[in-house]
Amino acid sequence: AMSAKRIAPSDAMRLAVIQDGRPLRQIAKGAGLPASSISRFMNRRRGLSSRSLDRIADTIGVELRPVRRSA
C-alpha cells in the first residue's frame, strides 16, 4: 500500500483552493475575507487563522479535520 505523505494543513488548503478553480477574489468574497489576505496566503507570504481557514473551507466545500493515523 502506498502511504500518502502528510502535508501541512495550510498546504492542503492551498491545494484545495487551486483545485477549486475559481478566482481567488471570488473565494475571498464567499469567505468574507480580503482578497489580498488569501493572495498572500497562497503565495506563502502569510498564514491565516484557523477561523479564516474554516471560512475558506466552507466556501470551497472541503472539510478540515484532524488527521488520525489509521491502524
Overall description:
- 55% of the residues lie in helices and 0% in strands.
- It is built from 4 helices and no strands.
- The protein has helices spanning 9-20, 24-31, 35-42, 50-60.
- The two termini are 13 Å apart.
- The model has no long low-confidence stretch (mean pLDDT 89).
Summarize the structure.
With 71 residues, the chain is mainly alpha-helical. The chain is 55% helix and 0% strand.
Spell out the blueprint of helices and strands.
Elements: H1 9-20, H2 24-31, H3 35-42, H4 50-60
Helix pairs in contact: 1-4, 2-3, 2-4
Would you tell me the structural class of the helices and strands? mainly alpha
The total of helices stands at 4
Output the radius of gyration. 13 Å
Question: Main β-sheet, in a few words?
Answer: none
Highlighted features:
mainly alpha; 4 helices
